[in-house]
């Protein structure tokens, strides 16, 4: 977790991308959001020490929800 990164695989496009979180609290909130939003089947290696968690996005709505969540985190941190 020292790098505060998560990998994502977008099934609809076949694209793998990485998101970096700004701090441990943002990372923790992102992980909690994804666990609730995608469920346990949506992640791989999520709780394995030393492994970058990978999440699977199955549709555009999931991608949009993730981006909206990150935007709201950033806006809250700036205010």
Describe the protein's topology.
Blueprint: E1 5-10, E2 15-20, H1 24-38, E3 43-44, E4 54-57, H2 60-78
Parallel strand pairs: 1-4
Antiparallel strand pairs: 1-2, 3-4
Helix pairs in contact: 1-2
- Percent range of helical residues: 40-55%
Total helices: the number is: 2
Radius of gyration: 12 Å
The neighbouring-strand order within the major sheet is: 2-1-4-3
N- and C-termini, Cα separation: 26 Å
- Assembly context of the chains: single chain
Q: Structurally, how many domains make up the residues?
A: 1
The assigned structural class equals alpha+beta
The H/E string reads EEHEEH
Give structural notes.
- This protein has 79 residues and is α+β, with helices and mostly antiparallel strands.
- It is 43% helix and 23% strand.
- The protein has helices spanning 24-38, 60-78; strands at residues 5-10, 15-20, 43-44, 54-57.
- Strand 1 (5-10) and strand 2 form a beta hairpin.
Provide a quick synopsis of the model.
The chain has 79 residues and is of the alpha+beta class. 43% of the residues lie in helices and 23% in strands. It has one domain (5-78).
């Amino acid at each position: 977790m020292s790098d505060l990164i998560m990998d994502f695989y977008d099934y609809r496009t076949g694209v793998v991308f990485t998101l970096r979180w700004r701090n441990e609290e943002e990372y923790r909130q992102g992980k909690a959001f994804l666990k609730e939003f995608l469920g346990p089947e949506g992640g791989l290696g999520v709780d394995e020490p030393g492994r970058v968690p990978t999440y699977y996005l199955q549709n555009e709505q999931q991608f949009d929800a993730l981006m909206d969540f990150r935007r709201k985190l950033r806006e809250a941190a700036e205010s």
